[in-house]
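Q: Given only this backbone (310 positions), what sequence would you predict?
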């Protein structure tokens, strides 16, 4: 496969040059794991992150970002924002659940889960099924800021993905996102720092290999707590969920949601794999100086689970 990175907008290139001019972007935007934890605590006034199951995955991710990702200034800013947001989510949700423990008793019954290889049509099917009033699909803003109600959090959700399009305009033609659109479960499990999101947008092969060998049950348990939180705010007849990466972790999904109903989308891997590699390379190009889509290909075998045919 031959992939050529799209040109970056002039404003983004100029911003990246700011980091280069002072000896490296790390001098301007830090990714020290302990400093980020302290920043989350200071910004919320909270200290309890909940069960410590997330910390080993977090430390490994931060190490991989520094050693492997070669992030430019914009990439470091985006990574720091997402990490800090996930840490703040843990603090805010832990406080919310302590104040309202009944939220954790919310039944999450028989969710409908759309799965399939990336670029197989899972997003359009998810959005189409979400038009059914009986379905409750988590919106982007809810997944990014689950402890917050509508209003400011909706604007934050819109701004987040609009910025992705600003950084690399070609991305919007590949995959449209908006604050009010349904989105993937990876944006819930990223709060456990065990999510396909991190490896999908950064060059972190050691983290991605860790993800492939990890037990994802705790991530799905945290995911269920987030659904209960959203459900307490606005219920629906049934949850409608989606993520291609569920393919590789169906055992953990069914351990937490034994009554889940799976809708499996199929498409020729000869079409989905090149499209997926192009999409992932574009996402990584937003953040990294260099990206190698061919090196990512073996990880798609894991992400495709038992359905891999290549």
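A: Predicted residues:
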């Amino acid at each position: 496969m031959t992939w050529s990175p799209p040109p970056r907008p002039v404003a983004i290139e100029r911003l990246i040059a700011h980091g280069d001019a002072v000896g490296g972007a790390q001098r301007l935007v830090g990714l020290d794991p302990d400093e980020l934890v302290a920043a989350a605590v200071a910004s919320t006034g909270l200290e309890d992150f909940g069960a410590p199951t997330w910390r080993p995955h977090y430390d490994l991710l931060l190490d991989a970002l520094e050693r492997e990702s070669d992030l430019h200034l914009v990439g470091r800013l985006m990574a720091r924002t997402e990490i800090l947001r996930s840490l703040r989510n843990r603090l805010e949700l832990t406080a919310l659940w302590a104040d309202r423990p009944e939220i954790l008793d919310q039944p999450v019954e028989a969710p409908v889960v759309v799965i399939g290889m990336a670029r197989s049509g899972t997003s359009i099917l998810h959005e189409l099924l979400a038009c059914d009033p009986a379905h409750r699909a988590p919106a982007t803003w809810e997944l990014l800021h689950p402890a917050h109600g509508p209003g400011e959090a909706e604007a934050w959700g819109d701004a987040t993905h609009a910025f992705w399009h600003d950084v690399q305009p070609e991305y919007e033609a590949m995959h449209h996102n908006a604050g009010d659109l349904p989105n993937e479960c990876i944006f819930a499990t990223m709060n456990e720092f065990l999510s396909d999101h991190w490896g999908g947008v950064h060059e972190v092969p050691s983290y991605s290999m860790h993800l492939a060998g990890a037990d994802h049950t705790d991530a799905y348990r945290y995911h269920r707590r987030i659904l209960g939180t959203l459900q307490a705010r606005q219920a629906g007849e049934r949850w409608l969920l989606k993520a291609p990466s569920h393919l590789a972790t169906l055992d953990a999904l069914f351990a937490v949601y034994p009554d889940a109903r799976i809708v499996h989308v199929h498409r020729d891997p000869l079409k989905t794999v090149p499209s997926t590699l192009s999409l992932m390379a574009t996402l990584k190009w937003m953040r990294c100086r260099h990206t190698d889509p061919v090196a990512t290909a073996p990880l798609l075998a894991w992400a495709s689970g038992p359905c891999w045919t290549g």
